[in-house]
Amino acid sequence: MRVAILADIHGNLPACEAVLEDIAKQAPDYIVAAGDLALRGAHPRETVQLLIDQCDVLLVGNTDCYIASNYLGGAYREREHWKKDLLEWTRQELGTELVDTLGKLPFSMRYAPRRGQDLYVCHANPRNLEESLEPTMDEPTLRRYLAHVDAAAIAFGHLHFPYRRRVGRTLIADVASAGIPRDGDLRPAYGLFTFTPKGWRVQIRRVRYQVRKATQAITARRVPGGPLLIHKLVEARYRHHAALQEAARRHSGLPPIAPPQGGRPHAEPGLNAPLLPPPPGLRSLMPQDAPDPDVADVAMESAVVAARAAAATAQAMSEANTPALEAPEAPEDHPDDAHAGDAAADQDSDPDSDQAEEPGEEPGAPIGGSSTGTGS
C-alpha cells in the first residue's frame, strides 16, 4: 500500500498543481490532503476544488475551522487586524457551499494494510488542530500527544517543516507544506508512505514550481495582507532554524553539522542566511482597503529577489546530491540514506505567526532539511 499525503496548501494553486502532478507519477493507492487547504493564498476556491477532485480524503486543519467559523485562533480573533480582512476575503472567494464543506471535514483518517499496522493521518497532532509536534520536543511530552493512538505510523503537517522520528515502535513524520514551506527550501513538499514487509517507510518529495506565479497572483488579486504574505512565502524559515535542523538530523540518525573552520561561512545552504527584513508597506496592511499599487510592486520585487536566492539554494542542494528524507523500516535500522536538513521554528512555533517562509521546487529532489513550526 502507498499513501501520498500533502498538507498546508494554503490556497497556493501553482504549488498544489505541481505537487499533485508529481503524486500522479508515483501512482499511490490513496491521496490525502491533511488540512489548511485555503487560507493565505490567492486561489482558495480553485485550490479546494482541485483537491476535492483529485484526493481520496480531505482532512480539516485549524485555518479551515477559522474559515467555517467553527472557532477562531490567534490574531483572527481580533476585530481590527488585517487577518480578519483576509479571512472574510477567503470566505467570499470560496462561496457558501465550499465554506460549509471545510467545516464538516473529518479530523483524521486511518489506513490498515495489515492488522496492527495502521497509518494514522491528521493535521497537527492526534489531540487537536493547534499544537505542533516539533522535532525539539522531549519524548515524554510527545508521548502524551500520541498516548491514545494505536498506530504503527502517524503522519501530520501543520509545522511546514519535514522530519521523521521514532517514538518506541511508532514512526511519526511531518510531511511539511505543499504551499508555504518553512524549512529554508522554496520547493513545496509532500510525504509518500509505503508499506513494506518491514513496516511503513516515508519519503519526503520536493517539486519545482514557479514561485513568481504565486506571488504575482497575491498582488494581482489584492489579497488582504499581500506584502506580508509574499514576504513569508519567500523567506521560508523560522527564527530557531538551527535548533530545529539539529534535532531533525539527530532523529534521522545523521551526525550534527560540523562547525566551519577558519571563520568561513558554512557550506550548508541557508544555514547562515539571515531572516529577511520586514517587507515594505506593512502599515498598508492595517486599513480595510487594498495596499497601494506602488507598495505592492515594491513587495513583489522583494519577493522576486528572494525567490531567485532560494532557487540558487535549491540548485546547490541538487549539486550536493543529498538523498530524499526516508524513514527507517524498523526501529533498529540506521537511516544512512536519510536527509533531515533544514529545521526552524518561531519563538512560539506558530506557522501562522507573521514570520517568514519560502516555497519549494523539484520533484523527488532531496530536501534541504527538516523543519518544525506550527500550521498557519
Could you give the topology of this structure?
Layout: E1 2-6, H1 13-26, E2 30-34, H2 44-54, E3 57-59, H3 62-67, H4 82-94, H5 96-103, E4 108-111, E5 119-122, H6 139-146, E6 153-156, E7 163-167, E8 170-174, E9 189-196, E10 199-206, H7 211-220, H8 226-235, H9 241-251, H10 293-320
Parallel strand pairs: 1-2, 2-3, 5-6, 6-8
Antiparallel strand pairs: 1-9, 4-5, 7-8, 9-10
Task: Please explain how this structure is put together.
The C terminus is likely disordered. The protein has 376 residues and is of the alpha/beta class. It has a single domain, classed as Purple Acid Phosphatase, chain A, domain 2 (4-Layer Sandwich), CATH 3.60.21.10. The strands form two sheets. It has a five-stranded mixed beta sheet with strand order 3-2-1-9-10, with helices on one face. It is 32% helix and 14% strand. Helix 6 links the parallel strand 5 and strand 6.
Task: Write a concise keyword list for the protein shown above.
10 strands; 376 residues; disordered C terminus; globular; five-stranded mixed beta sheet; alpha/beta; single chain; 10 helices; Purple Acid Phosphatase, chain A, domain 2; 32% helix
